[in-house]
Design brief:
mainly alpha, 3 helices, 45% helix
Length: 73
């Protein structure tokens, strides 16, 4: 579950990864796979800021990539 402080409007890459429960490498893989068109576009990522809506979208995408337990629909 995402733990988002209501008064926080922007998250650093590290804060975003922590809020999503993934490593920074996993966060970058999600962005590379679902959002970024070219590897060169990742260069400014270290300075990127994420909004709560960005975290929501990334959490949904992260859930789609995780293997589902056997017997689930």
């Amino acid at each position: 579950m995402i733990t988002v402080k209501p008064h926080k409007s922007q998250y650093s890459e590290t804060e975003a990864a922590e809020a999503l429960g993934v490593s920074i490498d996993e966060l970058r893989r999600l962005i590379r796979h679902h959002i970024v068109g070219a590897e060169d576009d990742l260069t400014p990522l270290a300075q990127a800021n994420f909004q709560p809506s960005d975290l929501l979208l990334l959490k949904i995408l992260a859930g789609q990539q995780r293997p589902q337990p056997a017997g689930s629909c």
